[in-house]
Amino acid sequence: MENKYKAAFRADLDASDAPYENIDDEALRIYPSGEEIKRMGIVIIFDEDDSNHVAFRTDPFTTFPEEDIMKGLLLVNRLNGRFRYAKFCLDDDRDLRMEVDAIVDMSTMRSEIGELLARILSIADDAFPEVMRARYA
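-> structure tokens emitted (137 positions)
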């Protein structure tokens, strides 16, 4: 059964003709664009027990080869020190991702998620040049 917060947010997306990809009963993916990043997939995960917890997970910025894993870890440390609002991490596949967790209110969820997405994109745009330097320098 679909999470009630997700259902309400999906109804807002449908009403505004915003494109999204339905993943399952708790998650969907949207593709907003920023200034540096022209298209970034962001998965929005609504808690499975109908609570108001929402998680945002970006698609990978880049993947670090095994021999450059230390560059990736140092980058994660720098980015996490610079951007307190979001958490950067390297997953098991050495993909660099950004994560944000939040609690939303049903009556203000649309504006809250909109603000969170704007912040995520702003942070991604600010971090992107440093990510590319660390990956390819």
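Strands lie at 21-22, 27-30, 42-46, 53-58, 62-63, 87-90, 95-103.
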